[in-house]
Amino acid sequence: MGAPATYTTKQLADLAGVSVRTLHHYDKIGLLRPQRRENGYRVYGPDEVDRLQLILVYRASGMQLTDICHCIDGTADLREQLLQQRSRLAEERKRLDRMIATVDRTVASLEGSTAMRDADKFEGFKQALVADNERNIRRRGARPPLEMRRLTRQTRESWGMTHEQYDETKSLEAEIKKALAEALATDNPTGPEAKRLCELHRQWLCRFWGDGVYSKSAHVGMAEAYLADERFRAYYDAVAPGATQFLRDAIVAYCAE
Length: 257
Prior knowledge:
Blueprint: E1 7-8, H1 9-16, H2 20-28, E2 35-36, E3 42-44, H3 46-60, H4 65-72, H5 78-110, H6 120-138, H7 146-158, H8 163-186, H9 192-209, H10 216-228, H11 230-237, H12 243-256
Antiparallel strand pairs: 1-3, 2-3
Helix pairs in contact: 1-2, 3-4, 3-5, 5-6, 8-9, 9-12, 10-11, 10-12, 11-12
């Protein structure tokens, strides 16, 4: 066998279907470091090729570059990480299949070939919300605690909202954001405004988790996941800067009582 193949930046960019600028950016942020020849030119060997493949697999699932770096530099080897990501991609395919099935059933209903309950029109969206919630927890490279994994399985089984219940849940979500702004203004995560906020948030979770699933430890686990994931932070910090941290602190205090 000959020596392992090496590639210049341009050659690897063409091979992988990315731009040279992308590879330079990955080098700059420490995500994909090339080897350096004596003349200073960048070259990529087998290890860098494998790492780039894994980066692109993660990117295909929508993961942010900072999170990819955290995952790749963990303890799992390449094979284990690819298997984990394959599982996530399979979940995404299932989610898309559910959404397509919901659209197909709606079209068939509109054409008069079949009847469709109002609740069925939202099932694909509700399942997608749960799946997205679980993915956001895992994107930080950490598995949800056992109790969180148990409740998310029960979530899928317990959701059976009517259209009216779904609207009520969305209204509760808006009320939570209003309560968050009011509690944040007090700068007191243990005050009465913060407790009201946490109670509303508990009610909102219970609408998805079902009877007998809620626990204080699970509530805290969800709050920690909000703080760890930048998409959740962006959602709550849209209320006001620091709102996600405040919500997490308030929930921790609320559940400690």
